[in-house]
Amino acid sequence: MIRITDTIDIDERDLEERFVRASGPGGQNVNKVSTAVELRFRVGESSLPSDVKDRLRALAGTRLIAGDVLLIDSREHRTQAQNREAARARLVELVTRAAKRPKKRRATRPRPAAREKRLASKKLRGTVKELRGRTRGADD
């Protein structure tokens, strides 16, 4: 079990890890050893609360593949163990963000003084623009 919060845990059985060859630095080692990790997390089948699942799907964006599978790819380190830890850390961070409930927006209204100030500044701006026009001479 991976602990997210006091009430939310991720079961290891919901995770699927595949090791693939990574590109980038590593010399000959990169051609022989599969160090990159593809971590797959089945969101729909997990034991997460439904509201957390919905927020996780929204946060995942393009990382959500094949309907309900979250794919996290880690290839920044040269060892399997480090890439595995990095992928799991990213999953934990993503689920932690999804676990936080967004604050409800409370509708507010501008105060009468603020409304008057706004209208006064608009009126002043209008008169400034009006004065930019052509001036009429005495002959007209």
The rounded Rg comes to 28 Å
* N-to-C series of helices and strands: EEEHEHEEHH
Helix proportion of residues, in percent?
25-40%
Mean pLDDT: 79
Largest sheet: 4 strands, antiparallel
Question: Structural class from helices and strands?
Answer: alpha+beta
Number of strands: 6
Q: In percent, how much strand structure appears in the residues? A: 15-25%
Strand arrangement within the widest β-sheet reads 3-4-6-5
The shape is: elongated
- How many DSSP helices? 4
Question: Between the first and last Cα atoms, what is the distance in angstroms?
Answer: 89 Å
Unreliable runs: none
How do you describe this structure in short?
The chain is an alpha+beta fold and 140 residues long.
Description:
The protein is an alpha+beta fold. Helix content is 39%, strand content 18%. The strands form two sheets. The chain has a four-stranded antiparallel β-sheet with strand order 3-4-6-5. The protein has a two-stranded antiparallel sheet with strand order 1-2. A hairpin with a 5-residue loop joins strand 1 and strand 2. Helix 2 (50-60) crosses helix 3. The mean pLDDT is 79.
